[in-house]
From TrEMBL:
Residues 17-137 form the Mycothiol-dependent maleylpyruvate isomerase metal-binding domain. PANTHER family: CONSERVED PROTEIN. This is Uncharacterized protein (TIGR03083 family). It comes from the Bacteria. GO terms for molecular function: metal ion binding. Pfam families: MDMPI_N. InterPro entries: DinB/YfiT-like (IPR034660), Maleyloyr_isom (IPR017517), MDMPI_metal-binding (IPR024344). It comes from Nesterenkonia sandarakina.
Length: 245
């Protein structure tokens, strides 16, 4: 079994996922479904909520090794579904994911992005997915994003560098960077090299807080507003990736 989940990363609790999901649901409750979400291209709030909810259900299916239907799908096919709000639908999808994750041991084998791995892979991945899309929604609604522990943001950085970007390269979705970039968290001093495992001397060093680094890697921020030392053009080339799906 391939296990890419470091012990520290497995420490992200299910309660963290629940907290982020409830914040997303709360923001949805007062939102106009047709409002645009600029950080997600042409998506509306409705499309963002549908995306995140469907990803939760898909991840739950990966944990159990089966294809799962979204809550209410069967009733909808029978023409008996109720007209419920985005927040209500999202709540059901979020609860399905949490119930699934809590029903299996964290180390239960399942399919992951890197082959067979522990179920904790999906708990960690869905925390990051919800974290980024909660930021998207908050920005779209002009509201402040809820406070999240710096360690969670830093773990989001680690996941991109160690798992998602290598997967992008493996699938041919991104080209191997010509240069190496060193990311440094100003809060903890943690460091990550992009691409992961590179032995080349970094062409540039980028320093920021964990949240800024995570949002940068997910294409939500521009590096021009952050502290870059060395070759800024090389840094931009590495970050162009795309580093994430």
């Amino acid at each position: 079994m391939v296990d890419d989940e470091p012990t520290a990363s497995r420490g992200l609790p299910l309660a963290q996922l629940a907290e982020l999901q409830r914040a997303f649901e709360s923001a949805l409750a007062g939102a106009d479904p047709e409002s645009p979400v600029p950080s997600c291209g042409r998506w509306s709030v409705r499309e963002l909520a549908e995306h995140l909810g469907s990803v939760h259900v898909w991840a739950a299916g990966k944990v159990l090794g089966e294809r799962m239907e979204r809550p209410g799908a069967a009733a909808a096919r029978d023409g008996a579904s109720e007209d419920c709000s985005l927040a209500t639908r999202y709540r059901a999808e979020a609860e399905l994911l949490r119930t699934t994750l809590s029903s299996v041991p964290p180390d239960q084998p399942c399919q992951t992005f890197t082959g067979l791995g522990p179920a904790s892979f999906w708990q960690r991945r869905q925390i990051h997915e919800t974290l980024i899309h909660l930021w998207d929604l908050s920005q779209a609604l002009g509201s402040a994003s809820p406070e999240v522990q710096p360690a969670v943001w830093e773990d989001c950085v680690a996941k991109v560098v160690e798992v998602l970007h290598p997967r992008q390269l493996r699938l041919g979705r991104a080209e191997d960077p010509q240069d190496s970039l060193l990311l440094v968290s100003e809060g903890s001093g943690r460091q990550w090299r992009v691409p992961a495992g590179s032995s080349a001397e970094p062409a540039a060093v980028l320093r920021a807080c964990g949240a800024e680094l995570a949002l940068l890697l997910w294409g939500r921020l521009e590096e021009t507003g952050l502290t870059v030392s060395g070759d800024a053009r090389a840094a931009a080339g590495v970050l162009a990736g795309p580093l994430t799906p």
